[in-house]
Amino acid sequence: MRKAQSQVAQFERHVMERNVQETNQTTRRTLLRGAVLGGTGIATASLLAPGSASAADAGNGLVFPGVDVVIDSSHATAEVAALVRRYLTSKSAQDLDGWMSFFSRDLITYIDAVVGAGFYNWDSLRASLSQFMSNWPSDGKSYPTRILGDATSAVVFFTDTAGLFGPSEIRAVGIINFRDHKITRQIDYWDGRHFGIANEAALAAYSTGSPTDFGESTVGETAAPAMRDVASKLAQALRNGDGASAAELFAPGAIFEDMPAHLHIVGPRSIGTYLTKAISLLPYAGGGTAVRHVVGSAVGGGYEWTASNSAVPRGVVALELDGWGRITRLTAMWDGSLVDDSTLISLARTAIEQ
């Protein structure tokens, strides 16, 4: 164990040039959290043989070069954590060809679900990304903060720093499918209000029109059966407005968070009560909602949803599961700029407990 921890510490000193003792403490705490939650990414990273390429890559999943952040890969395999880190490292290095090497040349769907920019072949995607990259600041970064899933499909929380796509940062959730370690489908969701409504409007010039084909049929449903089962049951309960049934899917200490609404609710009882009262307000609940695509492993992943009767037509629900298949954390991401202030105020008011 000391030998494995030493290998991780050596890597972190090289990347972050931080105090050795502080780095080792962070690594041990993160390893323990990964073991408790049932994820394999960090634990496997620390136990791999020193000096191997896999060990180095897995260690990379803990930190990101040039960014003072510890990546939460507690619900991801070491393989996908390393893959995502290398992918975004190439993007942050402004290495266009290196970045593009992570995409499949034969099968690719890449859509920014907020801007409405869709690309269905490698060449058109490269041409579009090169336009942005040529204007990026030298210190710009795109880095992951949380990764859920495995090397077949994953949910990736990542941040594009200010200057990459506008004057503000974008905190996005990417739904990614892989085949032989190449990206075959990526759909990005984010909140236009956090980015700035005026900033979001400026990106309209890069829209390719409202995409109608999100490419889920081209990659198929590869998510773990446990994740598909929970996603299906949750989506059905939300569609039916059945907060009580939804609450039964959550673990005792579960967290429900809605990013655009700035909500953080703890415990099945409070979560169920909130969902029951907020059905008419939440864009991912009610009769017009449906599951588009499910991704992830048995402990981490989520699903994309569509809503035919809402001002918000699409979004994503990320899920962390425990060893019994219960939801320990739910994170919803959608474009809050599509609703007015009164809707967000009502969502917050509904969360007040009596």
Strand order of the largest sheet: 3-6-7-8-9-4-5
Residue stretches low in confidence (pLDDT < 50, at least 5 long) are 1-61
Percentage of residues in helical conformation: 25-40%
Strand percentage: 25-35%
Q: What's the CATH C level of the largest domain? A: Alpha Beta
What's the total count of β strands?
A: 15
Radius of gyration: 20 Å
Give the overall average pLDDT: 87
Number of helices: 14
Based on Cα principal axes, name the global outline.
globular
Number of domains: 2
What is the terminal separation in angstroms? Answer: 49 Å
Overall SS class: alpha+beta
CATH architecture of the largest domain: Roll
Order of helices and strands: HHHHEEEHHEEHEEEEHHHHHEEHEEEEH
CATH topology of the largest domain: Nuclear Transport Factor 2, Chain: A
Description:
- The protein has 354 residues and is of the alpha+beta class.
- The chain folds into 2 domains: 2-219, Nuclear Transport Factor 2, Chain: A; 225-350, Nuclear Transport Factor 2, Chain: A (Roll), CATH 3.10.450.50.
- Helix content is 38%, strand content 27%.
- The protein has helices at residues 2-16, 20-37, 41-47, 53-60, 78-92, 96-100, 122-133, 192-195, 197-202, 216-219, 225-239, 243-247, 268-278, 341-350, and strands at residues 63-64, 67-70, 72-76, 109-112, 117-119, 142-149, 153-160, 170-179, 182-190, 250-258, 263-266, 289-296, 300-307, 314-321, 327-333.
- The protein has a 7-stranded mixed β-sheet. Strands 11-10-15-14-13-12 form a 6-stranded mixed β-sheet, covered by helices on one side. Strands 1-2 form a two-stranded antiparallel sheet.
- Helix 3 (41-47) crosses helix 4.
- The longest helix is centred in the N-terminal third of the chain and has 18 residues, at 20-37.
